[in-house]
């Protein structure tokens, strides 16, 4: 027989009443000489206001993941897979390309890639803003749940698949099966769409959409004209299973 | 998951560095396939030479002493064929100034149990089981010169972890193919090729891809056409790199689950599963780096 005990509750009565510390310090980490694990640990220990610069990233994986302080992190070069994953707070800028799964499961804060991003960028993101100045690969914003994504170039196939909430802005073209099985996310595309996925349709651009798109473009530092975009979203026919739709999924 | 790193050197001044560059790429893809590995190198002095056919045989032990193999093969070839047998790492190389078909026939008669893993005038193929960088070191990759190099680190899914199941698969003169992914209908295609008289060395799905490409090339396809046709016939996940005596091709399946990244400069074209394998290449800072689009065949010729 196993006895389950409750986790220990804190008996510390000496509760801190001071405000969290804020710093204006700058730090630099050269990944040619130190492991990614150390970088991430230091970023987890960081306090609000700090500025971190990461040099010689060399395409290493899992750079700057799980940041939970209002810091700025600048990666000088190309990042590998899962950069800035689980991002909670602060701003991460990658002065290069990013690999698979950029800003996966981002909760808030911003992640900005100056180059291209590989597939599954901002996958399952709940909030925050992901800006990709170049192109994004396949499955951009797959299962997005509230994140805003602005892509300066093109996006690959199956982007915004099962997107539930948030906005995806594409200043270039979109690949095949855009927004397949989409829920309530909104997609704005300036260029062409190779094909729309199941239950994704073009929708009218109303004043509210032009306004929110304008805000998103401005937040991404872009000068595109919102009226050049088309809006896509869910036809809401596949929300609930209906046998007549069985071949549409 | 498997790792691929491939390099085509356009600038002959870089040829002496082929092995060290490929080695620097390969060590970054070990995590993707640590159980076995393989290499194909083109125009590497000491391994192959112009006007001579070279066969790469799996394993350093062929059941007979090297001198005896050489004597037996020389005895079956014209006296000016200059047959030579060398052991490089875990690979036995047999070369002679005759056509590859004749050399294959003679080697098969002399060493009926041998597995020929590479053939041609320009390519040497080496593969083994173990840590990929140990395999590379055992074969002396670091010091090799050459015009092209192809490396693969394997995480086996469709067939056992054996040296014979390692990539590259080289089944026609100077043709090599490596694969990240898995073909799901390889058994069906294998049966079709068997009916055409194609002979297989392994149970591996990728070998079917290599035999298919070789068969299409033999029927007159260009490399690009052969890979377009492969896309119509094969089902599954794949990022493939195919090399010939003077060209390299990359193709991903239309779903594109398997990663690939390419860098192109005036001096070289390189492809890898992950960018980190390209990070140490010369001039990478200003190079054109891109992901190959799904379903599109890319080819480069020297």
Q: What characteristics describe this protein?
A:
heterodimer; A: 249 residues; mainly beta; Pectate Lyase C-like; eleven-stranded mixed β-sheet; 2 helices; 11 strands; 9% helix; elongated; disordered N terminus; B: 302 residues; alpha+beta; Glutamine Phosphoribosylpyrophosphate, subunit 1, domain 1; Alpha-Beta Plaits; 2 domains; seven-stranded antiparallel β-sheet; five-stranded antiparallel β-sheet; 16 strands; 24% helix; globular
CATH class of the largest domain in chain B: Alpha Beta
First-last Cα distance of chain A: 47 Å
Number of strands of chain B: 16
Query: In which order are the strands of the major sheet of chain B placed?
Result: 7-2-8-1-14-13-15
Structural commentary:
The complex is a heterodimer of chains A (249) and B (302). Chain A is elongated and about 60 Å long. Chain A is mainly β. Chain A is built from two helices and eleven strands. The model of chain A is unreliable at 1-13 (pLDDT under 50). In chain A, strand 1 (26-30), helix 1 and strand 2 (51-55) form a beta-alpha-beta unit. With 302 residues, chain B is of the alpha+beta class. Chain B has two domains: 3-48 and 125-301, 4-Layer Sandwich (Glutamine Phosphoribosylpyrophosphate, subunit 1, domain 1), CATH 3.60.20.10; 53-121, Alpha-Beta Plaits (2-Layer Sandwich). Chain B is built from seven helices and 16 strands. Chain B has helices at 18-26, 66-76, 100-110, 132-138, 186-195, 205-218, 223-233; strands at 3-9, 36-42, 53-58, 84-88, 91-96, 116-120, 123-129, 148-154, 169-172, 175-183, 236-243, 247-252, 261-264, 268-272, 288-290, 298-301. In chain B, strand 9 and strand 10 form a beta hairpin. The interface between A and B is medium-sized, with 18 and 16 residues.
